[in-house]
Amino acid sequence: MKTFFELAQTRRSTRKFKTDAVPQEIQEQLQKIVLMSPASKRANPWEFIFVEDKAMLETISTCKQMGAAFVKDAPLAVVVIADPQKSDVWIEDASIASTYLHLAAEDLGLGSCWVQIRRRGKEDGEPAGDVLKKALNIPENMEVLSVIAIGYKEEERKPFDLTRLQLERIHKETF
Q1: What whole-number distance in Å separates Cα of residue 107 and Cα of residue 24?
Q2: Dihedral over Cα of 109, 115, 117, 122: its sign
Q3: pLDDT digits over 59-79, tens only?
Q4: Which of 20, 50, 103, 152 has the smallest CB count inside 10 Å?
Q5: pLDDT at 2 over 90
Q6: Could you tell me which of 65, 51, 64 has the C-alpha nearest to residue 150?
């Protein structure tokens, strides 16, 4: 098991996946981990749709103008949704959950990549979230934040180069 530092250093966005399915046992671990992600006042406004169906992955891959095409080749996608009525910080809560998915996937030997959905759309202006709401039968009161594509990495990427850390962005006591 990697330390958290090693996990953060080695987790890189993966857009090319092997065709191997993500086993149910690993999906169950991902499900448990994401349900443990913190949420403001433990309101838990988030919910998650695990998608393996190839036709649905294809639909997800076309939900916005750019940046989602690779989802069609992922063996698994997790659609992260939330109910804004449950928490005024649903975006933050769902973002934390999405990050937990990334780190959990890396820890379990998988790759992942975030697909931004909120405030993105198709060329004709249709919001990506509306496309996914229709396709996945998501209730109207829910908002779609992201899709996390997950699978076994086609190729390993180099860990983050620590010499490239932007240390000038760290401030102490004041700006």
Answers
A1: 16
A2: negative
A3: 999 999 999 999 999 999 999
A4: 20
A5: no
A6: 51
Residues in the chain: 175
Q: Is 49's pLDDT higher than 80?
A: yes
Q: What percent of the chain has pLDDT over 70?
A: 100
Query: What's the angle, vertex CA 173, arms to CA 171 and CA 175, rounded to 5?
Result: 50
13-156 fold: NADH Oxidase (3.40.109)
For residues 21 and 52, the answer to whether their CB atoms sit within 8 Å is yes
Q: Indicate the domain borders of the chain.
A: 13-156
Q: Please say if the pLDDT value at position 172 is more than 80.
A: yes
Tell me the C-alpha distance between 160 and 164, whole Å: 8
pLDDT of residue 175: 96
